[in-house]
Amino acid sequence: IVLTGGDDRLWKTWGFPDGNILMTGEGHTDWLSGCCFRPSGTQLVTSSGDTTVRIWDLSRRGCILTLRGHSRAVRACFWHSCGDFVASASMDATSKIWDVNSERCRYTLRGHKESVNSIEFLPFSSTALTSSADKTLSLWDVRTVSRL
């Protein structure tokens, strides 16, 4: 299964080798910039130009949570290996760590001077890596919200 998102505001799962669309999700009001399966494979997260991050339940075939807090388009999203946290990177020059269980932003990572274009967690750690249009990479300890 492959997961995609695009300018049509939709995410799609594709089966291979046939390339058939298995499932489609709609709800964002602008382009999709990122999508990522939860490690368990039961949910996915998407990020969008509409400034939101959404959690989707595949068995319910719908959005179960919309996370709001960025002031500009969200460029990327990533799920932590434990499945309890989602990270987002935004054109507002911040990244956020979202607690999926409490449905709130746990931390806001500030330090880049321009758009944060990507974020991901290092596997099985509390370290996140961000890249920015300011031509820098940063490693963050998300427990202390500090750069490493």
From TrEMBL:
An example Gene Ontology biological process: axoneme assembly
UniProt KW keywords: Repeat, WD repeat
GO CC list: axonemal central apparatus
Gene3D superfamilies the record matches: YVTN repeat-like/Quinoprotein amine dehydrogenase
Top-rank taxon: Eukaryota
Annotated signal peptide: none
WD repeat ranges per the UniProt record: 25-66, 67-108, 109-148
Name under which the protein is recorded: SPG16 protein
GN (gene name): Spag16
